[in-house]
Amino acid sequence: MIPFSCTMKLNFLATRPLRVIITSWYLQHYSMLFLWKILKFQVPPFLTKKQLKKPIVAVKGGELSWQQPFAAIGILGSIIAIVIWKLKPPADPSPTSSPLYNFLAGNSFDKGAALSTDGSSQQKALKWLEQSTLNNSALDYTLLQFYVLAVFNYATGETLSKLISNTWLPNNGADSEYNFCDWVYITCNGEKDINYLIPSSSQIDGSLPPKIGHLTSLEILHFYNNTFNGTLPTEIGHLKSLTDLLLHSKNFTGTLPTESGFLTRLHYLDLYSNTFTGTIPTEIGLLTGSLYRLALYSNSFTGTLHKEIGNLTSLYSLDLHSNNFNGTLPTEIGNLNSIIYLTLFSNDFTGTLPTDIRLLTSLTGLWLFSNTFTGTLPTEIGLLTSLTAIAYSAEQYIHWFSAN
Questions:
Q1: What is the pTM assigned to this prediction?
Q2: CA distance to 8, 125, 187, 216, 392, per residue, from 148 (Å)
Q3: Angle between helices 141-155 and 121-130 (to 10 degrees)
Q4: Distance between CA atoms of 254 and 275, rounded to whole angstroms?
Q5: Which residue, 30, 107, 151, 165, is most buried by CB atoms nearer than 10 A?
Q6: CA distances from 70 to 24, 28, 40, 63, 377 (A)
Q7: Which residues fall within 8 angstroms of residue 283, CB to CB, at 6 or more apart?
């Protein structure tokens, strides 16, 4: 133990740095000693009873002298610490100790990382569930759907209370708050699971959260004429029951996720009037036999039209105008034997039209102007007996004519 006299006058604060260090050691020394005593622990060997029996203050030669100044400080500090400890409200339980938290984290694409992020839409949704009667309901798919809807609301800058008082929930009283099948823009199937989510033209803004991928019973998703922004989450590929995906007339950016090719029941993919970039993923070709309409016009897509586009044999409308596509048209375009409307104007397509275009026997409208095609229309186009109109640019001259 460092030798140090416990006798000190009131002006002891005017100390040297070395004495400050020793002072800190003695403060801890007496604080621990006092706590050991009040908690009835055995006093450690280096803290003797003799030290405790010394008077804290004494008068010597007419001067007030501290016999154990740091004992007093230690005792006072300990008392203050105990009072604060007693008055401090109990801390919130760790979120990992909550069955609800563990359920939601186990059903999260990010293993619960967003749930633990302060201020996140996921954490706000968790707190909403904990404060509602849903906290006592079964940990099942129904509860997960409530969670996804809550995350959606917070991600779009709304709160459930605001939505209740406006258009999201009908004015049916508090009971409807916990029955999402009664909510405006939502319909449910026979199993009471969400299959239609159609908040179109509702002035909803914000981003589309990845949690939307948990609504695996969803068949129709219509978000057009809102003010969404951000990217289309890759988790959209989990919506294997989806038939209609209409997200046009908004501010979506980024690329079209390759996971969109997993939506093998998709009939209508309308993403026009956004600011998507990049190429059409080749995985779109996996939607063979299901996709009826592909509308990607008025975006900023680039690159060539992949040969996989020819796999979409059920397609009746392919509308890619007003983008930045380039290169030649693949010969596989002749496989689109169900196509009625082929709209490719205002791009950077080059080369000549493939002669396989003669195979598009159901085609009624062909719009190709404002590209850089070369040559003339192939004579095989005369075999398209259903064709009623063509818009083709050759040397900046647009020809319109009736094939009949």
A1: 0.72
A2: 67, 8, 15, 11, 48
A3: 130
A4: 7
A5: 151
A6: 9, 9, 21, 18, 100
A7: 258, 259, 260, 261, 262, 308
R_g of the chain, CA atoms, integer Å: 36
Written as six digits, the tokens of 131 are 């404060």
pLDDT at 166: 47
**pLDDT tens readout for residues 344-402:** 999 999 999 999 999 999 999 999 999 999 888 888 888 898 998 888 764 433 444 44
- The residues spanned by each domain of the chain are 10-87
Length of the chain (residues)? 404
Quote the DSSP letter at residue 118. Answer: T
Query: Which residue is listed with tokens 């006058």?
Result: 9
Residue 24 makes CB contacts below 8 A (sequence gap 6+) with: none
Q: Is 37 helix (H, G, I), strand (E, B) or coil?
A: helix
What distance, in Å, lies between the first and last C-alpha atoms of the chain?
A: 109
